[in-house]
């Protein structure tokens, strides 16, 4: 029995988690009021919060995990944590590298582990890209998410998709600049499988080497949301639209085969165990030297990519300046901060670590909020309480954030609108299948049941109506089906368009898809199932070719 009357759980004699007085009773009341007020003004259905300081923990559930059945969020409720998963994948590699491949380090070339059959888009990138490069988002490869959103066939294996990476184009040189890329964490998961000699999947390896040793027994890897919801206490996904909470389709929640990038779902209780591990990294669970490398800053992040809060605009500073392997490095109110966020449609999460204070906090919600970022304002408020700082936010300013300090950026209307513009061509000229060897095949057809509207489908989930614009062969898209909310809620998808291109004979032969600042080419003479005619292939992205200028200086940090 703990002499202070606290309840403790010991994990393999490595970690001790104690439910103690991390907050004072007054602070608990302040925090509860703050969270409930922010949830109300942001229309967030459910919210979970975990805080760890030393051996003590605090877990709390707020709101509803199932709005229509009135089921409450508890410390056992699972939330999909999105890209917070990435640090679990790097932790798995920190476990496997020293044991399965002792001669390796984070600076081992990816192609050395995967063998001669593996290739990136160029020989230079194949010959030089290391594990450190792919995990710190500095490969220069394009951040393609169309395929992940659309959903790949469940039969596609990671080994098959790894070979497809040769068709993912580069936009800049290796180690030149940060560009966040989910596909590199898919690749990291595949590397883990290869290190295990193909005998176990990433899912099995993560469970065996990370989740089970930490006692994270309720944590699950999302494959089928409906199935998971029948087996566990799952927070269901919602958007607040037209004055009510709307349940999103479970079919939209799959990122196969890129689960290592963001498919873990966890509870406040289990995330407390994860936070304590991150702050202590016990040697009997992972190689400490190898693990500690993951949190060190590697690649500088441009301010416009990550953002932040800075004086004198705001009363405090909060920013990131570099990425590690599954982590970002920054500062909050002058204190060293290690962090990562996560988003999976309506699920959004945020994890902050203050290593010097032995403090970690995790927050997550199951609804897309109208408010800019309820998880960020809650994170800062909770951090202030635990750091002994006077909170600079209150319920009023959290709901108006970033005002009154900074005017909110204007957003496009959440309602799709279009002008009646008729295409210069007959719609039948656009009909056909347009392929991309990495993303997939887009099927363009005329939907006779929707007033002869041009429609584009990709994968299981992307279904869009195409509406002509005043510009020749350019159409705006409106998401329907499982992803209808993208055009309703997110301005970057609301503003997406499709541009068809003609050949020398004036016939349509390709299309360029554009959304969120990314563009990819799909052609009628290409199919996803195609293979290269030679051992190496490049692929054009918006008809631009890029030349890689490689850095060949390597600094070796052994995991031994």
SSE arrangement:
Elements: E1 7-11, E2 15-19, H1 25-42, E3 46-53, E4 56-66, E5 71-72, E6 79-80, H2 86-100, H3 110-114, H4 123-128, H5 131-135, H6 146-150, H7 158-164, H8 183-195, H9 202-211, E7 220-221, H10 225-231, E8 238-241, E9 244-247, E10 264-266, H11 268-280, H12 288-292, E11 299-300, H13 303-306, E12 308-309, E13 318-323, E14 328-332, E15 335-344, E16 347-354, E17 359-365, E18 367-368, H14 374-387, H15 395-400, E19 432-436, E20 440-447, E21 453-458, E22 462-468, E23 474-480, H16 485-489, H17 491-494, E24 497-502, E25 508-515, E26 518-523
Parallel strand pairs: 2-4, 8-18
Antiparallel strand pairs: 1-2, 3-4, 3-17, 4-5, 6-10, 7-10, 8-9, 11-13, 12-13, 13-14, 14-15, 15-16, 16-17, 19-20, 20-21, 21-22, 22-23, 23-24, 24-25, 25-26
Helix pairs in contact: 1-14, 2-8, 2-9
What tags apply to this protein structure?
disordered C terminus; 560 residues; twelve-stranded mixed β-sheet; Beta-lactamase; 17 helices; disordered N terminus; globular; Lipocalin; alpha+beta; eight-stranded antiparallel β-sheet
N→C terminal distance: 38 Å
Going by CATH, the architecture of the domain at 7-88 and 199-293 and 334-400 would be 3-Layer(aba) Sandwich
Number of DSSP E strands: 26
Give the radius of gyration. Answer: 24 Å
- Enumerate how many helices there are, as a single number: 17
The general outline is: globular
- Most strands sheet: 12 strands, mixed
Low-confidence stretches: 1-19, 533-558
Full CATH superfamily name of the domain at 7-88 and 199-293 and 334-400: DD-peptidase/beta-lactamase superfamily
């Amino acid at each position: 029995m703990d002499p202070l009357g606290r309840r403790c759980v010991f994990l393999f004699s490595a970690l001790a988690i104690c439910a103690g007085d991390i907050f004072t009773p007054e602070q608990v009341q302040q925090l509860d009021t703050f969270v409930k007020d922010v949830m109300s003004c942001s229309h967030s259905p459910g919210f979970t919060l975990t805080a760890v300081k030393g051996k003590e923990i605090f877990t709390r559930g707020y709101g509803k995990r199932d709005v229509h059945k009135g089921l409450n969020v508890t410390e056992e409720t699972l939330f999909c944590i999105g890209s917070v998963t990435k640090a679990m994948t790097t932790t798995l590699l920190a476990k496997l590298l020293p044991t399965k491949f002792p001669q390796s380090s984070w600076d081992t070339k990816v192609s050395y582990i995967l063998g001669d059959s593996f290739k990136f888009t160029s020989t230079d990138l194949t010959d030089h890209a290391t594990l450190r490069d792919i995990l710190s988002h500095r490969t220069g490869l394009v951040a393609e998410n169309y395929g992940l959103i659309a959903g790949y066939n469940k039969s596609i294996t990671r080994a098959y998709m790894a070979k497809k990476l040769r068709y993912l184009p580069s936009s800049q040189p290796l180690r030149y600049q940060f560009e966040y890329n989910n596909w590199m964490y898919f690749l990291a998961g595949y590397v883990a499988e290869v290190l295990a000699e193909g005998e176990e999947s990433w899912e099995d390896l993560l469970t065996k080497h990370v989740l089970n040793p930490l006692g994270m027994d309720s944590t699950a890897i999302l494959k089928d949301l409906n199935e998971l919801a029948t087996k566990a206490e799952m927070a269901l996904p919602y958007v607040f639209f037209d004055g009510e909470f709307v349940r999103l389709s479970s079919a939209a929640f799959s990122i196969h085969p890129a689960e290592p990038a963001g498919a873990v779902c966890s509870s406040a209780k289990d995330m407390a165990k994860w936070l304590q591990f991150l702050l202590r990294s016990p040697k009997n669970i992972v190689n400490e030297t190898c693990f500690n490398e993951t949190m060190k800053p590697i690649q500088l992040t441009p301010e416009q990519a990550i953002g932040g809060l800075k004086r004198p605009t705001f009363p405090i500073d909060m920013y990131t300046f570099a990425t590690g392997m599954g982590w970002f490095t920054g500062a909050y109110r002058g204190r060293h901060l290690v962090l990562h966020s996560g988003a999976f449609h309506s699920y959004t999460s945020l994890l902050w670590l203050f290593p010097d204070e032995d403090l970690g906090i995790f927050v997550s919600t199951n609804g897309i909020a109208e408010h800019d970022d309820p998880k960020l304002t809650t994170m800062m408020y909770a951090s202030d309480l635990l750091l002994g700082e006077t909170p600079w936010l209150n319920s009023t300013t959290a709901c108006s954030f970033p005002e009154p300090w900074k005017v909110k950026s204007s957003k496009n209307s959440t309602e799709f609108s279009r002008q009646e513009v008729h295409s210069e061509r007959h719609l039948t000229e656009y009909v056909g299948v347009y392929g991309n060897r990495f993303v997939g095949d887009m099927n363009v057809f005329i939907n006779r049941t929707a007033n002869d509207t041009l429609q584009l489908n990709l994968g299981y989930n992307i279904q869009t109506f195409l509406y002509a614009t005043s510009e020749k062969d350019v159409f705006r898209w409106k998401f329907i089906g499982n992803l209808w909310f993208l055009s309703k809620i997110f301005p970057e998808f609301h503003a997406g368009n499709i541009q068809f291109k003609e050949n020398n004979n004036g016939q349509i032969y390709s299309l360029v898809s554009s959304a969120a600042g990314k563009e990819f080419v799909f052609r009628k003479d290409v199919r996803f199932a195609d293979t290269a005619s030679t051992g190496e292939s490049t692929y054009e992205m918006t008809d631009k070719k890029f030349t890689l200028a490689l850095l060949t200086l390597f600094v070796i940090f052994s995991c031994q």
